[in-house]
């Protein structure tokens, strides 16, 4: 099963994030990008959930391909917010802060200062260097862009791949503004992450875990 459709606290993982964007008054349209085999499930979920802003489309082989497919549904949107469906604890304040921060350069990404000491390590597992921690931030989504900047970054990237959209925009020569993310805004990649996300959702909703 596609990770975005894994069950979290009684509904599909991606539903928690889409619900937030559906409620957000600053968001007018939503492209929900899923694997080809999950499209019908996604469309049914959108209908049952009353997501009036949502259109569902298939993803691609790379992250940027999937985002480009989503962009094709948002042709009249001058600003684009890219968010990982695997981050279910996004909130409207993060979206608002991102839109505000992006006005400075046309690109912004949620992020948190790194708390741990980071080591750059070679393939032999020997430390090569220790970057200065005060300059390091862990990047999250939402990431917000002027649409034309993001499209230009994709065109220039060609076959080059990136783990996030902000990296491609940086390589295109645009300065990306970092704005305060949230420690709640975790990315679900493992079963342990699912358990943690459920605890955080219960806390947010004022419930106690049994």
The portion of residues forming beta strands comes to: 15-25%
CATH superfamily: Spore Coat Polysaccharide Biosynthesis Protein SpsA, Chain A
Overall 3D form: globular
Structural class comes to alpha/beta
Structure description:
This protein is an alpha/beta fold. The protein has a single domain (3-202), classed as Spore Coat Polysaccharide Biosynthesis Protein SpsA, Chain A (Alpha-Beta Complex), CATH 3.90.550.10. It is 35% helix and 21% strand. It contains seven helices and ten strands. It has helices at residues 13-23, 39-49, 63-71, 92-102, 147-157, 165-171, 191-204, and strands at 7-8, 11-12, 30-34, 54-58, 79-82, 107-113, 120-121, 127-129, 137-146, 177-180. A four-stranded mixed sheet has the order 5-9-6-10. A hairpin with a 2-residue loop joins β1 and β2. The radius of gyration is 18 Å and the shape is globular. 30% of the residues are buried.
